[in-house]
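Sanity check

After download, print the first record. It should look like this:
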Amino acid sequence: MPPTTINSPLVGARDDEKEVFTRRLSNLSRNSTVFCEGIHDEATIVDMQDVEFCGALGSGGFSNIREFRRLRKTRSSSIETECSAASSQLSVCSGNSAKSYAVKQLREDLNKSSAECGAIDLAIEAKFLSILSHRNIVSLHCVSESSPGDKDFFIVIERIDRTVGEEIRAWRGTEQRIKESKESTKKDTQRNLQAVFCERVVVAIEITHALQYLHEHHIIHRDIKPENIGLDFSDEVKIFDFGCAKELKEEQKIDHNQYLSTAMTGTRRYMAPEVYLGKPYGPPADIFSFCILLWQILSLKTPFDDYRTFDKHATAVYTKHQRPPLTRRWPKELKKLLEKGWHKDACQRRDISSICSILQKILAQENVHC
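Expected structure tokens:
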């Protein structure tokens, strides 16, 4: 049975449901060291009628993404793309444009429960992006005039070209072509494979830069995975989708790197043991997710691909402490980094700054052979 189409995630909601929505947003600013009151503090406000689109780019669990063409009103001309105003309404903005944006809005085909969750996630994402500023984090350029929770609420964000998940598939194809090439010598083949490996390490390092920025500001992402990290048209890495993000507040602190937090947050394949088990957690939960992702980027394989259900995955990963297999030819420092980074004990995991330094050293050593 298809999901019920609704006009607004909060239309018809009980008063207590609306109160939960309002409270979750207001709690972001309460006793916060990073937030100012008000979701629109750092973003330009626009009306949906002022926005022109080029077409659909894709969709996620809760939201649709459309290409942003331009604003009709000059009051927000500062965020216009460099697409020509004279071009066809059906044309898509140039992929190599210096300024390219996308509009993210709640899907209209969600059932009531999903729409309410999606509305909260989108509002939280807007709130976080309004105060974050880092080259490896997608930037927020404006938000809608509508209130969070309204069916017309949207955000305009920096557009990415492809996700890391798509890039992994492209790397896999590149490696296959290199190995199958009959014109290359064995030495050339090895050098070309090494170059692609170094390229992947560079992407991983850029991800650590973004995570280091977040962790320094007492923020954890909680949903690090290939589908939430992209590359723009200049091949610069961008973390996005901050609907699960959380500020770590002193009042919630239990111990070092341990905070009272919601269990089972994020994506099964990359979820840290303490998050699944409902224990207090903090930045090391992102470290676990990153190391699973790092293994995927370097191996070009899907982690835990044999575990199709949550129960099988939980038994293998959280009870038996199974981890992805390490490739023998990888540097010892890399294998040690992964083993520490996805350790069952969060206290054993290195911080993201240390991981970044290790990856930079590995890259320097590997580049010698490229």
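If your output differs, re-run the checksum step. Summary of this record's structure: DSSP finds nine helices and 13 strands in the chain.
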